[in-house]
User: Fold these one by one.
Assistant:
Number 1:
Amino acid sequence: MIAEAGHFALILGLVIAFVQGTFPLFGASRNNYGLMALATSSAHAQFFAVSLSFLCLMYSFLISDFSVVNVALNSHTLKPLIYKITGVWGSHEGSMLLWVTILALFGIAVAIFGNNLPDTLKARVLAIQGLIGSAFIGFILLTSNPFNRLDPAPAQGNGLNPILQDPGLAFHPPFLYLGYVGFSVAFAFAVAALIEGRVDPPWARWVRPWTLAAWCSLTIGIALGSWWAYYELGWGGWWFWDPVENASFIPWLLGTALLHSAIVVEKRDALQSWTIFLAILTFSSALLGTFLVRSGILTSVHAFATDPERGIFILLLFVLITGGSLFLYAMRGPVLKGGGLFSPISREGALVLNNLLLTTSAAVVLLGTLYPLLLDAVGGGKVSVGPPFFNATFVPLMVPVLLCCTIAGMMTWKRADLHGVLQRLRVVALTAVIVTLVVTWLQGTKEILPAMALGVAAWLIIGSTVQIAERIGLFKISLMGSLKRASGMPRAAWGMAIAHGALGIFVIGVTASSAWKIEMIQLMKPGEIILVDDYKITFLGTANIKGPNYSGIQGQFEVNVGGDVITMLKPEKRRYQAERSETTEAAILTTLKGDLYGVLGEESGTGAWSTRFYFNPLVSWIWAGALLMAIGGLISLTDRRLRVGAPKLASKPISHAAK
Amino acid sequence: MGPKSRRLSFILMIMMLLGISVALVLAALKDNIVYFYSPTELLMKEPPMGQRLRVGGLVKQGSYLLENDGITSRFVITDKKSEVTATHKGVLPDLFREGQGVVGEGHFNKNKIFEAEKVLAKHDENYMPPEVAEALRKNGVWKGSKKP
């Protein structure tokens, strides 16, 4: 009954979304206020219908209603409550329903907070969102209905893939989708502006916070995914340049570019046409990402159960939405007039460079991801493009981006004094060089690249610190005066400095964990001792364990540093009964200096176990950096200036992203 | 600087950037792509020793064994026509099973044994790597799966 209600609510949602997508568009072109007002009310109604449908599915999972196919395939009565809830989006059907629910959430958010928008713009933005919504709800109803019934209902469900039963992954999809779908707001604004033929700073004041909110969620989502891959897959790595990972990284790169170009539109009334183009590209890449993940046309370490038929449907939607908006862009783009002039050496100029480099690197990642498909399509054989390709192309493109970060933050708008800026950065540059030299001296000349990367990180971190210090006049005026200036400094400036500094922390984590990683694979008998970095590890033996829905074997390793036992590492091999599958649970000792990472392998038959230990230096700095970047974004989101244009608008996305 | 020369400098910057990235991509593609072979294809065109490549197929029933050092496993990858013996030093992925699809990445040593540095088996039991599915389909072994 509840499932039928959910199904019905979703059909209702489709009808409402279609109304939302058509009548207001018509009304806006005829200046019919009644039809335009329909956009707001239908956005409310659509959210109500779609989220009701989502809650119905969640309810079916909570009560383990196995007469619903989706529940029977992805749940089990023994599954812990939290994973019954997160199991809702553990399957393809459920995750697509989450996708449209979040879309409807953004729709209602625009409807509520957009009271100060011009009527026609608001109607058009909501209509575009309605069209996207009806396309995707239609997709769900036609190819992936989560409410299909199963008759007779099985007594027990299949359970959820055990490696998905994990807190890191449970919240990875919602954040990722908040990011992906959040870019639909920027997209809808871009398309609406094309229809209107007008982009002005208030438009950018709207687009920027939404893009920023989406970007923060996406950053957190990707970080969660990579953290999960790190501790759950048991390979000790955190990023594999895998197609599925790239699918989320490309929208992130483009979204980052969009974020920066929207600043130029807002502050300087320039780059309008480019910003619109980027908004279209960013959302399109999010759609492409959904397609790549859901169709399974690329071999991936993270492949999910997939179905080519659905992939083609999503590809069709992608072509329709991207093709349509690009066509509109080609028709209407030239109408948009560029505004403020600026010299190449200026903050605008630096942001243009940032945009060019970010979009180029996104294109390179896209090329590397799709190259196997392209080559196969022309009969060139089956290939895979792995980390070496991306390291050789992506990294060189990123170096100038990182170097520019610090310089751009100190430049003025319109025309900047590059010489003066560099002079102010003398100390920072000197520190970066010293860091490079010291690391080279400590590690030997073979490690020159990592040493230089650490120099770049110092450049970013100290550069951001100096930026803040200069603005608040630290040590130049009294301390009280500095504090007063600090509290008066725009939040956006704080956000920028924090996010750029966080990028430096991230670079340190990436560099150290890949350059100075220690990996040891060996056979150990109980009582045997190995040395990893400063840790003395003693294998005590194994024990049988039993969890709520699994049983398994736990290895017990005593970790000793300088004669003191500091902890026990207990890696596990679990066997989930319902799902009839095994997982490896790595045991990780996290310290600021690095992670000691242990995995239990197989028993060799002679009482010895194969074991694997890694020491990953500074690896947690990677996620700390990513998190801090998102925090920088959130701080920037609370900037008063962004609220003047749109009252209270910042509070909503934040409260969602923070949960 | 006038608007014309400014535009010119932007265009030059874009061209330079494109040039550099195209050069980077071409250089990287030349050295860093890894070809996929099925065991039958390997018989037909023998790749040079030491070249990095991927081999995929099914793990032959009864072929898995652990070598004396206790950490190197040895198994046979088959497409039901031809076979390749592979070794892997380390811990195999959880979903590695006899009779299931597998992709190994590594190189051939002088004894014509495929030394896989990476072994990919999937998160999902119903999933078959596309390359493996196609290689098997070519030999008429596997008919493609619809979801259960």
Note: Residues 644-659 of chain A have pLDDT under 50 and may be disordered.
Number 2:
Amino acid sequence: MKKPKVGFYWCASCGGCEEAVLDLAEDILGVVAAIELVFWPVALDFKRSDVEAMDDGEIAVCFVNGAIRTSEQNEMVKLLRKKSQLIAAFGSCAQLGGIPGLANMFNREEMIKEVYLRSPSVNNDAEITPKEDIQVNEGNLILPALWDTVKALDHVIDVDYFLPGCPPPVNLIEDVFNMIVEGELPPKRTVLAPDVALCDECERREKKPDKLTLKEFKSPFEINIDPQECLLAQGLLCLGPVTRKGCGGACIKANMPCTGCMGPTGRVRDFGAKALTAIATSIDSKDEKEINAIVDSILDPVGTLYRYSLPASFLHRHYEKMLIGGSK
Amino acid sequence: MSTVGTGSNDKCKIGVYVCHCGINISSKVDVSKTVRFAAKLPHVTVSREYKFMCADPGQDLIQQDIRDGRINRAVVASCSPLMHEPTFRNTMAEAGGNPFLFQMANIREHVSWVTLDNTAATEKAMSLISAAVERVVFHQPLMPNRVPVHPDVLVVGGGIAGIHAALTLADAGQKVYLVEREPSIGGHMAKFDKTFPTLDCSACILTPKMSAVRAHSNITLWSYSEVIGVDGFVGNFKVRVRRKPRYIIEERCVGCLDCIEACIYKSGKVPDEFNEGLVKRKPVYIPFPQATPLVAVIDAKTCIGIRTGKCKMTCIDACERDAIDLNQSEEINEIEVGAIILATGFKTFNAKRIYRYGYGKYSNIYTSLELERMVNAAGPTGGEITLKNGQKPKAVGIVHCVGSRDNKTNKYCSKVCCMYSLKLAHLIKERTGAEVYNFYIDMRTPGKGYEEFYDRLLEENVHFIRGRVAEITDWVMTPEEEGKLVIRAEDTLVGVVRRVPVDMVVLSVGLEPQPDAEDVGRLFNISCTREGWFLERHPKLAPVSTFTDGIFLAGACQGPKDIPDSVAQAGAAAAEALALIDRGYVVLEPNTAYVQDELCSGCKTCIDLCPYGAISFDDEKDTAKVNGALCKGCGTCVASCPSGSLQQYLFTDDQIFSEIKGVILYA
């Protein structure tokens, strides 16, 4: 039997997703034996021209990680879409916009200023900032354009499957490879993880009270976290109830609250909004002032509740800035 | 909950019917244009208009289209669903369609009545029709559940309202449980001497009814008892009643008073609640001579036998019937009833809250209820109105609106105070011949024979001074004020500030909700108004119903009321309960929430949120579960579910989002 051709590509991502593939450890040998790797720039020396030379649909599955925020990424994923039968968004950045998606709270000009001029670790008296098109002695240099708005993969191309997580858990990655090798594919647009929230597999669920009565939300560094008690009951903003399971509660086993990287269940259209309603129910006060004070104890609400999903949310981005920058 | 028919699998064929509502809609909305617009919407096979969709010919249009197979879903664009949703659902069902494959677009209350511009109104109507069409595509065929009704009724509170409701139901052949918190039924009415405006002896008209309660074979009377738990839903309530220990075996006691006589306390030790604390009672007592049941009760807080065990327990020796049991413990009874009538009454305003009136500071200032006891022939003074020094007062001031119509205490009018103040004025005048001064803001005497009673008082030379009393003081300014209480008020009819010296002051205290009304409301799943009165379902058209089906209100727990109104309302509540029982079943609206078991993570976010107690945690499956019969379809749990595993029939996410999409797509 002919081995299915598989590609990997990364866009706006940290590289963690690529490492997650290596977390398969020795199991990766079985994977490599069963498939043919035709494109994986981070690990092997493939060029764009190699992809361009392929027939349309030649790649059986291409895994794309990272959000889309440059013209180059946009071009590459469109090319890969053409050359691949199936595209799988790999990890929360590709699925929902991920951590880079929080840039949607600002615009391009602000970000460039912050990174190249204002950052305390930068010494840039000449105020040099990246330019898309610049004339130097050697000729005209063109860089990919940085977009004003970070997008999830399916905002720019059709996506067949989504593998959630930051990064996706090893067992789910294995399942996907097996699925491809066996050729047993679920319906299009399936999120390849169980469609139940994390509490279901949480070891501390028994300890969760019927009613949470929180007077303050705390950050993990502020308290001695009890390793057995429900983290929400301890005042930590654990997003387990909102987040899809499949990770085995890795963070919770490490005594840290769930930050929601596995994204919402298939029935939820907006992760942060759902998280907010769930949190609102646990606030133990009927006094508006006190409620405001409790809510104010959530530091960085967008960064907490939409940590991985701002571009895919109803909010999408900071509205005022969209008018200034213009979304591409 | 069950789904019926094959509607969801059929090809979706939607009929849109736009109503003119005479000219209510058509004067603002270009109906023909909306009909042409609707015809082009997806899945719409029929689009029609009619002058009155709710009239038979209008409904026939829908039915004919269903029978001819042209449509299997319908959108009617007309008035508010509150008005005619049941009508059109019926229309659907009668023609063999499913009543829930239907959606209304409200283009009257939401459009034509509130939009000035005709073009804008038409646009808005079209966007709402578009939304309804998008939504009805996702409607599922549903069937409401029928649940049988338990024929017994619980009446909570044994004042005149509760007594009347219980007797009405019992006379109709229904089995009634009457639960009263105090040792005896009778409520406030039992404390009154006379009733206005007829001056009937209160006890003479009340006690026969109290005896009837005691004797009625259909009534189970539990006095000195409280409801502590209510589960279930209309037609099928499960109620837990705590019977407090009275340390007297009720079946044995005949009310002979021997134990009271024999108590080692030779005189009263504890303020007598029934007499508003004007006198003291012993730890073992019978609240009043006509108490029902006529059974003694021992107050565990003050009986030294129960408290310390060190007492000669002379009461036990005195009781020939061995009715005293100092080791009695409370008893919890569980009952099942189909309907509940709440008649938990009111409390009177605490006059100490208005310190300027000197209640509790000066002697010879009484609340109206204290005076009721004083003028009562069976009261502590045998009906004599006397000052603390034993003399009869020569001048008495009656201050109206104490704790009523006052921004600082209660804004509302307590409704009964003007009339009872007139009654007390009459009785004081009759018994003492004193000059009586009524200080009032407005005299409010609407009611049969009430204004005539006021006229009579005017003829009896009772003084009326229009003005809210500023203060009551013993600070005298003239020799004739010496030793008197001085009432200071602006006489607003004359425009002068008056100082009226009197010997006695009566504060006409207003009515307030029971202090635990909020808790009781929560127990029975009903709401309270801002003040704490139980909230009726509709102030005009459902005045004794509540938002919890099967729970009805009677008497002053719903708001200040006099005796005739309380009795009338009690009769109405009894009739509502009877109507429910007589029908024998309840139909439950299928807009309930449901848990998608296999998708629920068991995070418990929803468990404590349900205002109707419909959600519980299934420890076996580790998921939430909704009792569809208890669920009112408020959607709180559905919105809260962090993983979207709770959904609600008639309000699924698909339905709501497609509705929004319908509006946005149009725009």
Note: Chain A touches chain B at residues 195-200, 205, 208-211, 240-242, 244-245, 264-269, 274-275, 277-278, 280-282 (CB under 8 Å).
Number 3:
Amino acid sequence: MSQQTLMAILIFAPLVGFFINGFRYKKHSAEVAGTIATGAAVISFISALLMVIDLIGLPAEERRISVQFFDWITIEKLKVVAGFTIDQISAIMVLVVTGVGSLIHLFSIGYMHHDEGVAKYFAYLNLFLFNMLLLILGDNLLVMFVGWEGVGLCSYLLIGFWFTDKQKATAGMKAFITNRVGDAAFLLGMFVLFLTFGTLNFQEINHLVPLTSELTWLAPITMGTLFLFIGATGKSAQIPLYVWLPDAMAGPTPVSALIHAATMVTAGVYMIVRLNPLFMAAPNTMMIIATIGGLTAVMAASIGLTQWDIKKVLAYSTVSQLGYMFLACGVGAFGAALFHLMTHAFFKALMFLGSGSVIHAMHEEQDIRKMGGLKKYLPHTYLTFLIGWLAIIGVPPFAGFFSKDEILWQAFHSPRGHWVFWAMGALGAVMTAFYMTRLMALTFWGESRFSKKIHPHESPMIMLIPLFVLAILSAIGGWIGIPHVISEILPGQPGNFLETWLEPMIKTVPGTEHAEPSLEWGLMGISVMLAAISAMTAYHFYVKDPSKPKKIAASLGKLYDVVYNKYYVDEGYFCGIINPLVRLSKGIWFYIDVNFIDKTTYVISDLVRGSGLFVRGIQNGNIQQYAMYIGLGVVATMTYVLMR
Amino acid sequence: MILSAVTFLPLIFALALAFWPNERTLRHLALGFAVIEFLASLAMLAQFDSSTAALQMVEKFPWIERFGISYFLGLDGLSLWLVLLTTFIMPIVLLGAWNAIENRVKGFLISVFVLQTAMIGTFLAMDAIFFYLFWELSLVPMYFMIGIWGGQRRIYATVKFFIYTMFGSVLMLIAIIYLMFLTQETLGTMSASILDFYKLKIPFVGGQFFTLQTLLFFAFALAFAIKVPVFPFHTWLPDAHVEAPTPGSVILAGVMLKMGTYGFMRWTIPLFPEASEYWAWLFMTVGVVGIVYGALVAMVQPDIKKLVAYSSVSHMGYILLGLFTFNHFGMSGSLYQMLNHGVSTGALFLLVGMIYERTHSREISKYGGLASVLPLFTIAFFVITLSSIAVPMTNGFIGEFLILLGSFKAEPAFAYVAVTGVILGAVYMLWMFKRVFFGEKGELVKDEHHPLHDLSLRELCVLAPMVLMVFWMGLFPNQFLDLSKASIDHLVNDRTNYQLVIKGQNDLGPETKTAAISTQKTGDAQ
């Protein structure tokens, strides 16, 4: 099969699935709709696998399969081709997305079994996958942008999937509009880059990037990358545009796993990694990215400490973990960012699906205060969730440990790094360990706190299989990127596969020095120790001494309220932007449009009418009056002539 | 012959309808006529030569020789798609209005066809007086359409519409007459041909308003600006739209507004290059103000139709912005956006009309939860919404992207403001969409005495071509833009000395002499 055909199958299989399920949107059978959709996803996955195998067969420097379908927009210098590329970076992403995507499709068959709109659900899910593939594989910024907005659209549709609930519909709208703010900046970024480089093609841009870094803020590359990064803060839920993601949990749980944890929200990170030579040339942008990433990691984790909704905890956790990825990008550790993106996709999808299994078992209950002791009711879900927990808090040798450790190390050691960035990351890790342990404790451990009427039941096999697979990946997925200091002491000294694989595509920060292994070991030890202490504290609080957290919360008083209420950011946006804008618009409409502009036209027409009335008054057909006008005229003329 | 046929066939159809005895088959006949007209325009498309910017298929006959006025029709890349838009939308309008117009059907159909001739004539006429005739003729049928078949305040709205647009065009007439006298002075014989107008070198003095080119420029620009309508001359539009019957709104938004933007492209910018360049900042400013202003006001409208009307103001702001960038991106984007707006806003008015026929209300607050009752209608409305807010893969994206890119290239400050329209567009459309289609069922939706029915086969046939065009134009813009490329390139590259020739007639004889007007003349004008 030619590569063109294979690429077409890879991309368009989900689109075909979308159309099939879209046309049978009234059907209720989850099995049929789910099989079609899952089949489409699996076909994509297999095609992706075949293409990556082809890719591996190529020499390292030429690992790139490009396929061009047609010329999309051609105007003067702007030549945008509907072209798609698999290279080292997109290969990882495409496998993660189609692989995890397939698993989540499968899970959905069980989860959405009783839903009336199941065909529609699977149609949207396939449409999402299609758009995600455009985003990943597009070989230029504009094709990426097609997918970029497309996934946002599917996210909107899926968050508001149960649209009769006004809150859910509003959450969908909020997600789309917040993303649009980012997208507008993305557009500006494209304009700057196009006018600078004369192309939007990734390979060409990366090739044209000058070797010297820009030092001023208003220089084109710095501005372009900053705009793109603002775009990324929308899609990848970073400060200040992260507010839509927690609300997005209104959608069905598998959607949260697929779109709002594993794939779509990582698009911003992916975009930056894709353009890493460009971002490298803009140190100012990099500094902003690292700072925003670090702050987001800490802030979101702190909110996660206080939430009671199982999905909200995971949502803030996602925001926080995305912060790590941006932190990594910002310090120039693009490989580490991609690595964490991948492991996070495994363990966060696992935990979201696990929470779906829990919610399913608890009859749509999401409040962790009303759970507890589910370990014995849901043994398989518990086991897999446990692995996810170990992975995210960074216990070696689970996946999260390797990627998070790599980020922390680079944040400290890279020439673009700083100990402050490391400290932010470590603080985030401490909080992550705490809230995740809290989540485990309140959900699975301790006493049952739900009513006797609920009999939690383990989920069916179709939902458990994806959990098992993701659990295995969460356990061993990190082994492809084992750092040198560890591999040195392991038997056989396995190489860092990921680093070697990405090496031709990732620019390294100039001036990186070789560091003492003892320093790396030391930092690693500190962060693992801190996380362990934090996790044990949480265990003590929520399992051994459940009254303690309340006391601490009470003693914190106002501070706790502020964090619990998410720092009142949503309220701030409403008071500061949205409400004034609506008031302003109403004012413009009433005062300017109706009462000024339109009134002015009336004044003009009244003037015309008035002068008409005046003239009409003069010529009223009354002879005596006319005689008087003549007389007056004669007198006036005479006066003028005589006085002159 | 083909251009005359495309222009005047509708007029003949109108006559035929006037004498058609059978009331019941009138609509069928009219639909058939509109389809024939569309096919005729396709034949015109098939003959089109995209390799040249010259006028094609020209028909030129002397008409009032003493004043150099001629029957002069010509086609190039600037008019091609607008003519096709007109002929494409007409059968859809007629099918869409099947039940919307119940009384005096014959009069209505005659108006539609007369209007079609007027609009196509406006796009094809290359003689100023001939052009002006069509331009003004278009007012009459629309005046009756709103005034007879409109809503409650139809008389108010239609008089406002008529007088407002008339006011602008009278100034244009004066300017046209002035230009004709100028041709007599510089070329020896009086001419109203646009080709001769292009040859005039009208003196321009920057910084002084009461100079010849500036005055003529504003006389033309005002006429077109009111038609577009450009902020702040837009207040006739919401009234006209709200009162107009659905087909009237569709034609008005879909095609008639483009007569204004087309006017800028064909007349104002190439005729007065220096003044256009000098005053570009003004038009770009009102363009971006229109974008933001229209969007903000649209956001708080309680009436769906008014919302769509104000969204038009916003969208037309983009077109104006793109035109005055004077680069390939902005100009192509504007031309494309004219077509997009015709499709998406036309479709939006059709959709609003469809729901109005069911519930007799357009108040957003009375709806809610429509999506669970009318799934097909919802899908159609959603697709058109996507087009309106310019989501990639729909037509709207191509236009907006090119215009924004063009304005960023010309003057980034305008692009920074205009890009907020991308956000605000999503805000007003999606907020409306949420209130109408999502949430609990509103009072009109749950009314058990009037259960709502989803789209009928007729309505599907009305919307399907629109939805098809949304994606076709979004996915394969080159198929459209390539045909206009030569003309746009010519306009952009040779704007300061713009000349048009007639295809196959490169030697225009003694007329080709271009002569500057004596400084004496300039002094007079001042």
Note: The radius of gyration of chain A is 31 Å.
